From TrEMBL:
Residues 9-328 form the FAD/NAD(P)-binding domain. The lineage of its organism: Bacteria, Pseudomonadati, Pseudomonadota, Gammaproteobacteria, Alteromonadales. InterPro entries: FAD/NAD-bd_sf, FAD/NAD-binding_dom, FAD/NAD-linked_Rdtase_dimer_sf, Mn/Fe_SOD_N_sf, Pyr_nuc-diS_OxRdtase, Pyr_nucl-diS_OxRdtase_dimer. Keywords: FAD, Flavoprotein. Its cofactor is FAD. It comes from Pseudoalteromonas gelatinilytica. The keyword Flavoprotein applies. Residues 352-455 form the Pyridine nucleotide-disulphide oxidoreductase dimerisation domain. This is Dihydrolipoyl dehydrogenase.
Amino acid sequence: MDNQLKQVDIAIIGTGTAGMGAYREALKFTKSIALIEGGEYGTTCARVGCMPSKLLIAPAEARHRAAVFEQFGLQGSVPSVDGQLIMKRVREERDRFVGFVNEDVDGFDETHKVKAYAKFIDEHTLALSNGETIRAERIVIATGSRPNIPKFFEAAEDRLITNDDVFYWNDLPKSVAVFGAGVIGLELGQALHRLGVDTHLFGANDAVGPLSDPAIREYALGVFKSEFPFHSNGEVSSIKRVAEGVEITFKSEPDSQEQTKVFEYLLAATGRRANVDNLNIENTQLTLDTRGIPVYDPLSMQCGHSHIFIAGDVNGDIPLLHEASDEGRLAGENAGRFPEVFKRARKTPLGVVFSDPQIATVGKSYSQLVASKVPFASSSVSFENQGRARVMLVNKGLMRLYGEKETGILLGAEMIGPSHEHLAHLLSWSIQMRMTVGEILQMPFYHPVIEEGLRTGLRLLLNELNMGPQPPLNCIDCGPGA
């Protein structure tokens, strides 16, 4: 065993977005590093997450837009779907993105890379699947996450898939039952429907992605249910593997009549599970939460007061690439300078669902503000009569903005609407700069643009805060419906 013992200053377990960020920061402090990876190189985002899903959404949106040609006065037909060509492009572009990540890994010091799985023997010692043992002064856990599959779904047998499997398809199926109305379920469910796949989306408790504001959630439910079968509060009594695929018996609503339908596949989009269960973390003295994840400080990524840090999806907090990147760099920096540990202010929370209309959350959510007891005011603005949105026939949307009553500072927003990925960025920058609603309204707004709808919402919020007048209806400088 002694001949196989390797000693390093820092061991980083995992080479996803967080692990790569931690490695780059750790290099600024030491060259004695073990970068441990047991699986394939390539981040979750590039391989099975944000990038390949957008490659499926893009043709779906293009085809859907063709369906509204006649409303513009254009004569034409909706394009037919070649599932094999669509999935060929998805796989090729996905592999291209993964290739970029692998090129980065190829540039890392070969003496630092260790191809093996790791388990804790104690707080400083890791047993590797290749028979080696590593003793590290500091450790960064960045092992990512994997799809969470409820046991109930196992009855679908070989027709049970996750979003990871979708991007390896050679062709589109004829029908899919998507379970989970979170970000992944909404994006893939709507995209598959728009590409001609008979798709049913099964949710629970009328949840829609990350939305917590009842008004926005109700509006979003109406939008999606008007487009495709979305059982947001359904009850499933039976899942059975049959010759044709998966037979599902369900009620669309608790008081509705039971029905049975056969799908080619059951797609489980029921969240992700942190990859901590195979690390033997119980061999350390770390305090674990109910999920078995080490308790840590999100401002330093430090687990308790120990020399162990955790970053990325594995901490079960915010499974987003930009968050994983920030966390990885912070964990790597503090592992490098330990025992000196710095806290860093985190960026304003920002989340986007690339559905159509897009869903976005910025800053403090409605539920967080209610729970915090912070005195706040809110405003609502509809995009159904917003000038530019109507011109482009994308006039579906509702935005809710929240401001602090005592200071007028913008606190957060929840929204669904056209181009809201861009409005969400504008709002996140404003919140991070701690701008008041009045200050944001002094920023330039062009005409005619969708951003004018945001301005209307801000003017209404200023009035709700008792810091400005009631804005005039359809004022000239707003433009019609802005």
